[in-house]
Design goal:
This protein is α/β, with parallel strands linked by helices and about 300 residues long. The chain has a single domain, classed as Glycerol-3-phosphate (1)-acyltransferase, CATH 3.40.1130. The protein is built from eleven helices and nine strands. Strands 1-9-8-2-5-3-4 form a seven-stranded mixed β-sheet, with helices on both faces. It starts with 14 loop residues before the first helix and ends in a 24-residue tail after the last helix.
């Protein structure tokens, strides 16, 4: 936890951040259907105004769903922006709503996979890909028991303090991404579930090229290493925004069998395949705004230019 008081951030450069946080706090009190409606409108405004990110989304969708017509690909892109707009507005619900409200807004699917692993005292890694409900899912699960996850501080120090306090207000321990594996390994070996996000572009270091929707993608090899070091079962965990502000669904998929195999490319390919299957269930809610295919094998062109 950052050892800083909110009263330290009175400089005028933080006033816009305070205004934004105040707006988020006000929105967090609204009924979720109203937030969803306003968020959809905000998302379409962003779609119209933000040509750069609109291009990234269209490129990603085209690469991952080449079998779809251009019109169908465009519909996924527009739906993604609408869902993303809701995410921007309802993040305050994750950060400041009471535990009782978060429970009311949540339903589970495949909960037996998680509960069985807990009952059998297994070490657990929750494979939590970058779907738009990711923030909500981690905070909601941390109401029930201690958990650990990796945290990257934003550049804005005020936002960093507020975000860290919001995410850790129940039983979620945050480990800075620049720290070694040691803290994650120790906690997971103690039986604390690890909420792990492994699926953004890994850059040329610490990665292998594994297919994602048939396209080579620079992929972190951390998940199989952590699973081996902690003797943990890996359970995919996907959080979905339900339509029309009906809440959220946390879906636990069956644990990965015979994972890790000892082969980095094979294991990361399998991980990406699990994520693909979840994306196909709700393609509009995967985080397409990220340049997932930015790092290319030597000699390949940049898809985003």
């Amino acid at each position: 936890m950052v050892d800083t008081r909110l009263s330290d951030f009175t400089h005028p450069r933080y006033w816009p951040t305070w205004a934004g946080l105040g707006f988020m706090r006000l929105v967090s009190w609204l009924p979720l259907p109203l937030v969803a409606l306003a968020g959809g409108a905000l998302g379409m405004l962003l779609y119209a105004l933000h040509a750069g990110r609109r291009h990234v989304v269209h490129v990603n969708v085209r690469l991952c769903f080449p079998e779809l017509s251009p019109g169908a690909q465009a519909r996924i892109a527009r739906r993604h922006f609408r869902a993303f707009g809701q995410t921007l507005l309802d993040i305050g619900i994750s950060w400041w709503s009471s535990a009782s409200r978060l429970r009311r807004l949540t339903r589970f699917r495949g909960r037996e996979h998680y509960d069985n692993a807990l009952r059998e005292n297994k070490n657990i890694i929750l494979l939590a890909p970058h779907f738009l409900g990711l923030e909500y899912g981690g905070i909601r699960l941390s109401i029930e028991r201690p958990m650990v996850t990796v945290f990257r501080h934003p550049v804005n120090k005020l936002l960093s303090v507020v975000m860290e306090r919001a995410r850790s207000r129940f039983y979620l321990r945050l480990v800075e991404h620049i720290q070694s594996f040691t803290a994650l390994v120790k906690q997971t070996k103690k039986g604390v579930p690890l909420y792990y996000l492994p699926d953004q572009d890994a850059g040329p270091r610490q990665s292998v090229f594994a297919p994602f929707f048939g396209v080579p993608a620079a992929t972190f090899v951390v998940l199989p290493r952590l699973a081996e070091m902690t003797d943990a079962v890996v359970i995919p965990c996907i959080t979905r925004q339900l339509s029309w502000g009906r809440g959220y669904e946390i879906h636990f998929r069956p644990p990965l069998k015979n994972f890790p195999s000892g082969d980095a490319v094979s294991d990361t390919t399998r991980m990406n395949k699990e994520i693909e299957e979840a994306v196909r269930e709700m393609p509009e809610q995967y985080f397409w705004l990220h340049k997932r295919f930015k790092t290319r094998p030597k000699g390949e062109k940049d898809f985003y230019k």
